Amino acid sequence: MANESAADVPPDLEAALPRPAGIAFEDSTSCSRETREARADRSTRRSHSRSRSRRRSPSNGSGGAVSTYSGVPIEYRTLSIQVAESHRQAFADGVADLKGDAAGKRDDQDYFANLGFHQLAVDQICQQLNVSVDCGLSGEAAARRLDRDGQNTLPRPKTNYAKKLFWYLFGGFCSVLWVGVIIFFLCWRPLSSPPSITMLALAILVIIVIVLQASFSAFQDWSTVRTMSSIMDLLPSETVVLRDGKKTRIPATELASGDIVFLEIGNKVPADMRLLSHSGDIRFDRSVLTGESEEIEGAVDCTDPNFLESRNIALMGCIVCNGSGVGVVILTGARSVMGRIAAATAGVKEKPTLIQREITRFVRIIVCLTVVLALLILLAWVGWLRVQHSAYMGVVAMLNNVMGCVVAFIPEGMPVGVALTLMMVARRMKAVNILPKGLGTVETLGCVNVICSDKTGTLTKNEMRVNSVALVDHEFESPEDVYQDLLSETPPEGSVALYRAADLCNNASFDPTSFHLPPRDRDVQGNATDSAVLRFVAGGMGKGDEGQAQKPRDFEIPFNSKNKWMLTMYCKQSNEYQVYVKGAPDVLLPACTRYWSGKTNSIRPLDLAAHAAFKAFRDKRSRHAERVIVLCEKTMKLTSRHGTNAFSDEVAIGAISDLIIVGIMGIVDPPRLETAATISECRRAGSRFFMVTGDYGLTAAAIATQIGIFTSPRDPDTFDHIRTTAAAANPLSTSKSNDKSVVAECNINSSLILEGHQIARLTMAEWDVVCQYQEIVFARTTPEQKLRIVNELRKRDNVVAVTGDGVNDAPAMRAADVGIAVVTGSDVAIEASDLVLLDRFDEIVQAIRLGRLVFQNLQKVIAYLLPAGSWSEIWPVLLNVFFGVPLPLSSFLMIIICVFTDLFLSLSLIMEKEEFDLLSLPPRNHRRDHLITFRIYIQAYLFMGSMETITAHAMFFVYMWKYAGIPASALFFAFEAYAKDGFYGYTADQLKQFNTTGQCVYFVTLVILQWGNILSVRNRRLSIVQADPIRGKRRNPWLLLSMAISLAIAVFVTEVPAIQTLFVTASVPIEFWLIPLPLALGILCMDELRKLVVRLFPNGPIAHIAW
């Protein structure tokens, strides 16, 4: 075992400590001699790349992994410059005392300036980290280092709880309510003499209302955070490491310094690593740190004295966007570059969602109206009442009226109702295996009118198998025919070459724990295409642990979505290599000059007849929805030394030329069982469903026909038709966007297929034509082209959802209005998404349905709250101020209606099921169809609100006439006369008692009238006879319970002596509890009549203004 004192030194200092020349690796005992020998040649194959291409990768731009921390690129770039300056200063001063720096408290600049991992050779870095490159860490050593350094997790951004608390308490309606608190306190003391206990109680009550609203806002945020945590818990990030001489998959949080980690395309780098070897073309997307979309080439040797800029360092959080490699972990968790920056940066400032913008818009309207009315009352008092009716309204009474206006016009219960509505629908989504990352995302789904979906793994099962095999001039009836050829006494050389290429040009491998199963049932580590070919190979050899392992690989270029091919090389002798290439026919065929002939059993030139035979097989299999791949080989003699940049460049230049076709394979990926029905339902919901895939056009079109994306019996239109149509619509110019009305008149077929290379050639006028098609398949697309498709659709006022599962889908998902990932997708795709489907693809239909339901229920909640909680409360104040009527409703009773009686009833609306099939409606136009519309104001204020206001005032006047003998005509313009002794023979105290009881009558009347309102509001078009709350699918027992609760609150407020004393209320005569019942029924009948007129005359004037 190695000296453990070295292992206990913090890893950021190990590079600076002296080591003995000979070192015994601490876990060498766990690595067998055979294992070391099997891997010995790997060290001779380490290479660093000089990238052959600067093209963008699947992960760049906006689609790259987006950091949870804002300001990271700025922090990183600043830090890099400071480190470079520190190096220059250190060289100038000749100072280098690492241990002294470590003992003291260093800042980030000195911390990274003094790291030397990137400057050491591969063998040196392994010695300094006390690890064997062939065996990795032992489990015991990894546990010790993990215990010493802590888990490999980033420090969470600090939450500014003071700021959050401030906005909870002072945001939205609360800002106005605090003004009311101050006014009530002033009215309590010093303005009232003696101090008014009622004013104090009202101030405290309003504070309780504010705290209640703030609590629900906080609970909503906490629920969102908990949902995000549950998503990350369900989808832990894992990585492949070498432990005890064996490859194993562990959670990234359990990585320790010194771990040997294997990186592949699409992986997120789990910790800061020093590259030990790679495939020759590895590239990283560092945009998460640098903010730049340009990819960074990987290297083995140091390329820059600055640790942060050297290309042999792979930094945590970056994406492997090309190639593969092996690295050793040097910094984990908070000590990594990302960890250091994360600790110093604040959280992301979130953009408001559509529903948040709608609520903010409503709050602004209400607050503005409230301020206008309050100022109107204040000016009326200053310029008129104080002068002509000085005894009628003093300062306290005026302020009480102003606050009555504020309390009356603001629906205090609405924020609570909105929060609960969103949370309840989010809970429903989770119950059907849909996890929204934010509550606002729920409603946005209701606006989606275009869905762009990836094919492989999203629309299909991603369970590929080889279905057909052929040579250029000979098609096998089935893959089993190839096996029969191989088992014959003299196997045909063409079949042998095909099988050998399939075996040796493959990066998939079987899980060792599943070797006892048949090849088709084994678990495979690798991409779906390689997995299908591996199972084909395993079926021929009878078992899957042979083949590749018998022949060491000298060089490889893994498959990526740019090149659409992979390459492997095996040394034959000296500098001569056998090269195998597998990939897309349209990419590799131009590089092929010869082929293995099944008829002559020899290699022949690829003439026109062979070209035609190849194309015929490809098109035939593509029309059967098979993905066609071609296998090629060649022999290369290289002059450069293996493991150098020159070697990689020579391979890159010469490999894809003069190839020999050894075979063609058709791979089938069956669609998910629910895909066709899902697409049909999305179409019925008014959302166009497009396929965006990297597959060959005919294959994509065949699958699109199978699953219902293409429904037209005619062949789909193509690029040439688009160009002709655009030119016909605007013959003078195709470079500018034409008139959409002209384009709409063009004869456009409902289906369209476009390939990636054609997308870049589309003009704005042609995009206008493309975006009108109902059925589109975009084939052979790159991540950049997927991103452009989304952006072009959004430019034309479409709300776009993108579904996908791979790193290539992440840019488009991030740019879309709603990104939807499947749970089996990559971490990058899930990070870029707004919604995660945990089980089946058809859950997207339920998500759209619930998104529309939440908007519908929110409108019902608001339409219910406004009549009593706003309109019917503001008119008593206006009658009191401008018409001299004794105040029919006190501020206390206004608050009780808004926050208690109405709130419980509105919560029952949250539980309402859909009134009709929501998928039969077109998607909501977010620019035109607002949460609060002019029609809702008409319904809530002019129709229901006016009826409730007139009825409640009538009950107030009836009480005053029946019990006090004072007619309504005497109360109008009474002003100060009502408060004086002798008015209709009553004392001032008696008149005050009559007024108090009248206020409670008004209050009870409103509470009961709201029962009729809620029975009306729960159905916008259907009659209560068709959808009552007791029977059938629309049954809602919560509604009857909430009615009982509101009645209990009304009884408590008016009948409890303590409340009567504190808040100046009074008992209500029994008949005024009973008379409002038929009046509430009358309100329900009036709305039923309105609905009937709308149903009978859907194009009439009433229907035109109906909500």
UniProtKB/TrEMBL annotation:
Keywords, alphabetical: ATP-binding, Cell membrane, Membrane, Nucleotide-binding, Translocase, Transmembrane, Transmembrane helix
Bias-annotated ranges (Basic and acidic residues): 33-44
Membrane topology designation: Multi-pass membrane protein
Stretches with biased composition (Basic residues): 45-57
Pfam families xrefs: Cation_ATPase, Cation_ATPase_C, Cation_ATPase_N, E1-E2_ATPase
ATP-binding keyword on record: yes
Region Disordered: start-end pairs: 1-68
GO MF, one example: P-type sodium:potassium-exchanging transporter activity
GO CC annotations, alphabetized: plasma membrane
TM ranges: 165-188, 200-219, 313-334, 362-385, 391-420, 861-883, 889-911, 932-961, 1001-1017, 1038-1056, 1062-1086
UniProt subcellular location: Cell membrane
GO biological process: intracellular potassium ion homeostasis; intracellular sodium ion homeostasis; potassium ion import across plasma membrane; proton transmembrane transport; sodium ion export across plasma membrane
Chief location: membrane
Cation-transporting P-type ATPase N-terminal domain location: 116-189
InterPro entries in UniProt: ATPase_P-typ_cation-transptr_C, ATPase_P-typ_cation-transptr_N, ATPase_P-typ_cyto_dom_N, ATPase_P-typ_P_site, ATPase_P-typ_TM_dom_sf, ATPase_P-typ_transduc_dom_A_sf, ATPase_P-type_domA, Cation_transp_ATPase_P-type
Keyword Transmembrane helix (UniProt): yes
PANTHER family (UniProt xref): CATION TRANSPORTING ATPASE, SODIUM/POTASSIUM-TRANSPORTING ATPASE SUBUNIT ALPHA
Name under which the protein is recorded: Cation-transporting P-type ATPase N-terminal domain-containing protein
Organism (species): Chaetomidium leptoderma
